[in-house]
């Protein structure tokens, strides 16, 4: 078979500006053009080494009149009075030199668009044994990320930044998960690969297993270009908190009324699992003296609480069936001078105790719905990733303090489970508004869990996918441990922060203008972030987009967890493929 013809040059390396091994400029021939993010290649002969190929990405393009002196000359040139010509010059940032002989391209050397193998070589795709498609480049060709920097082999974790509502951070994170699971890149490991998604913005993520009715043929063609099926998530489970003041524990959702399980923690679990520290999840709390009271009370509850029916507990002879009752019981013990020694420690001052009690009582309203001792234990009540590939935990109806509690407790439980099970399976954990859970300043139990995942999670098979409006407000160690950094539309002030130093100046400026669906993806092997456009979601992102509930199940149905599963009217909806 004959090799494909070599593309004709689009221009020549200019001689009026310095060329370096890392950056050079190209004067475009008449009738040719280069746009930002195009991939180009040029060659020169080096004695003793032969042909040296320099590949790069267009990071700036400018046009000017050559022969003009003043700004007003443009009118004379347009009228044909003053001789001049338009010249476009593209700035190229080098991505790869092969072989590694770092010499500058010589002026006058032909430059051509990189296609096929040359493009793959320029972007190091030829060095990636396991490639995850993340979207299409400006040339309409697929862009890949090396799985080894996602699965913990050589790195892990993803940081996604951008303006809320415009940067499509959540949409990109979901597409990344979809691509990992459906591209076949995981091979046999796909069986044990899971995703845990915390949803804080409405019920948008409760329809991931529904096809998107708005998906058109053009978008399906884009999925095909990436060698991905245009279909919803085939294995998904959904959890939501119970409806407040509802004695049946019905999940607190409105758009999707079947296939969703309610989650809560019993008082017995709250005591035995020492979950009290997660009640105090504000970043500033860990710096206060009353934190020692938190751990003292938590340890005391673990020792003396005895479980009884429906998750209630008996503590020192009193039966407690609600979170309110537990809080008041603790307050009574700390108010009693004789009991305070056992519950708060022998040298704890009354001021410290009162500070603890004030904050504990402020948790009554946020947490009384999800810490219960009055509900019969139901199958599937506990948030678990075991029975489906993607697990969505809906938090949008919970107060912010309760959201922190849920995220902290669930992540701590999943981390402990992975430590016992080993790193054989992968768990991708997606958290939106990461700056709320792991802010740059202060410390808290949930921040410590996230730091633990960021620093040693990849050795356990736990990969963090964090999304935030401002990376500058997220704990530095979490951002620095993220091998893959993704940026969407940015606020101009945020774009100037040092956390975005990996973006070239032209891309920083473009990030302020980026339209929804365009992201800049930085990965360790490629020195220049790549602009990608990812397809429109093939899954419904709201009830109005749903093409209808799935018609079959793959054995991981949530119907066993659904309180309405036995009702005849809900039978069709309950056959969801989880």
UniProtKB/TrEMBL annotation:
SUPFAM superfamilies assigned: P-loop containing nucleoside triphosphate hydrolases
Protein name: ATP-binding protein
A GO molecular-function annotation: ATP binding
Region (Disordered): 546-578
Top-level lineage group: Bacteria
Keyword Repressor: no
Residue ranges the record marks as coiled coil: none
Keywords on record: ATP-binding, Nucleotide-binding
InterPro entries recorded: P-loop_NTPase, T4SS_component
């Amino acid at each position: 078979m004959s090799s494909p013809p070599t593309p004709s040059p689009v221009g020549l390396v200019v001689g009026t500006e310095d060329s370096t091994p890392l950056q050079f400029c190209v004067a475009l021939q008449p009738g040719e053009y280069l746009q930002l993010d195009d991939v180009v290649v040029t060659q020169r002969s080096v004695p003793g080494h032969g042909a040296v190929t320099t590949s790069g990405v267009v990071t700036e393009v400018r046009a000017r009149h050559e022969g003009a002196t003043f700004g007003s000359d443009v009118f004379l040139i347009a009228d044909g009075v003053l001789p001049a010509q338009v010249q476009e010059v593209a700035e190229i940032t080098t991505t790869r030199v092969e072989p590694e002989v770092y010499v500058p391209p010589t002026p006058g050397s032909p430059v051509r668009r990189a296609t096929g193998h040359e493009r793959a070589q320029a972007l190091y795709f030829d060095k990636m044994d396991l490639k995850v498609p993340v979207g299409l480049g400006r040339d309409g060709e697929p862009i890949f990320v090396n799985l080894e920097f996602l699965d913990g082999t050589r790195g892990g974790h993803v940081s996604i930044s951008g303006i809320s509502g415009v940067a499509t951070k959540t949409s990109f994170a979901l597409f990344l998960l979809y691509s990992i699971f459906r591209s076949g890149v995981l091979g046999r490991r796909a069986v044990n690969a899971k995703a845990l998604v915390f949803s804080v913005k409405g019920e948008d993520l409760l329809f991931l297993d529904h096809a998107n009715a708005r998906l058109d043929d053009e978008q399906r063609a884009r999925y095909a270009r990436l060698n991905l099926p245009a279909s919803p998530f085939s294995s998904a489970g959904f959890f939501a908190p119970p409806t407040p003041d509802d004695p049946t524990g019905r999940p607190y959702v409105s758009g999707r009324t079947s296939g969703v399980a309610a989650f809560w923690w019993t008082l017995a679990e709250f005591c035995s699992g020492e979950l009290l520290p997660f009640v105090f999840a504000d970043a500033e709390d860990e710096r206060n003296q009353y934190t020692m009271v938190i751990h003292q009370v938590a340890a005391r509850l673990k020792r003396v609480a005895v479980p009884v029916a429906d998750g209630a507990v008996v503590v020192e002879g009193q039966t407690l069936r609600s979170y309110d009752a537990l809080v008041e019981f603790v307050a009574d013990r700390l108010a009693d001078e004789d009991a305070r020694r056992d519950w708060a420690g022998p040298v704890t001052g009354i001021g410290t105790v009162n500070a603890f009690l004030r904050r504990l009582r402020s948790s009554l309203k946020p947490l009384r719905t999800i810490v219960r001792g009055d509900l019969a234990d139901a199958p599937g009540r506990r948030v678990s990733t075991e029975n489906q590939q993607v697990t969505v935990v809906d938090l949008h109806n919970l107060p912010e303090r309760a959201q922190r509690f849920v995220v902290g407790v669930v992540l701590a439980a999943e981390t402990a489970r992975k430590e016992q099970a080993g790193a054989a399976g992968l768990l991708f954990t997606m958290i939106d508004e990461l700056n709320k859970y792991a802010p740059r300043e202060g410390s808290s139990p949930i921040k410590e869990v996230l730091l633990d995942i960021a620093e040693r999670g990849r050795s356990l098979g736990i990969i963090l996918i964090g999304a935030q409006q401002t990376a500058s407000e997220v704990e530095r160690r979490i951002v620095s441990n993220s091998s893959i950094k993704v940026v969407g539309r940015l606020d101009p002030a945020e774009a100037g922060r040092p956390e975005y130093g990996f973006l070239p100046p032209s891309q920083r400026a473009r990030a302020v203008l980026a339209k929804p669906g365009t992201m800049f993806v930085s990965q360790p092997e490629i020195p220049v972030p790549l602009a990608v456009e990812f397809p429109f979601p093939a899954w419904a992102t709201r009830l109005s987009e749903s093409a209808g509930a799935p018609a079959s199940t793959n054995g991981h149905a949530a119907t066993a967890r659904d309180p309405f599963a036995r009702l005849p009217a809900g039978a069709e909806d309950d056959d969801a493929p989880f």
